[in-house]
Write a structure and sequence with these properties.
Length: 184
């Protein structure tokens, strides 16, 4: 049974997402994706003219999913509570069964050429996150500090697991928020 092109494209992207995320972008070939998606390579290339285009679509898809997660995690409460909710959700997100690391940091590391679309999309996602934190805090300095803690969570879970230093992130953010509320 044939699927419509839009459905096939989304299926390929879902398969590519898992393979790129768990096995790396550079280490995953287009033929591997086509085989795993059970489509002919010609079908894949008809929907994505190159691996670069497929990788960019993967990052764009991952960005949309991440933004949805972020907005859901910060949807309710006062700004400080929303930030703390973000870190509650983050510690759940970085559990080893869900997380190999930040897909955007990994993409930037694998694709260091800043002129590639995938790299640009990854940077734009990171900028979006920093801007949303800035909107919640109303302070560029505090937003930068909280953003650094969030990035540290993604980095530290790779070497120390979710029960390592990452477990301290929420408490550290809470201290920063409390400290900023008591400044003259």
């Amino acid at each position: 049974m044939r699927r419509p092109a839009k459905e096939t494209r989304e299926h390929i992207l879902a398969v590519a997402h898992d393979l790129f995320y768990w096995h790396s972008i550079k280490g995953t070939g287009v033929d591997t994706i086509a085989t795993a998606a059970e489509v002919a390579p010609a079908t894949l290339y008809r929907l994505f003219t190159s691996k670069d285009e497929l990788v960019a679509a993967y990052i764009q898809r991952a960005s949309g999913l991440y933004k949805q997660w972020f907005l859901g995690a910060t949807a309710e409460g006062e700004p400080a509570d929303r930030i703390l909710s973000l870190f509650d959700a983050l510690i759940e997100q970085v559990q080893p069964e869900h997380c190999r690391g930040c897909p955007f940091l990994m993409a930037m590391a694998e694709l260091p050429d800043a002129s590639t679309k995938a790299h640009t999309l990854a940077v734009e996602t990171k900028m979006w996150v920093r801007e949303r934190i800035g909107e919640l805090t109303g302070s560029d300095v505090l937003a930068d500090q909280i953003f650094l803690i969030m990035e540290g969570v993604y980095a530290s879970v790779q070497s120390h697991g979710a029960d390592g230093p990452a477990r301290q992130a929420r408490g550290l953010v809470e201290l920063l928020l409390t400290s900023s509320l008591h400044r003259p």
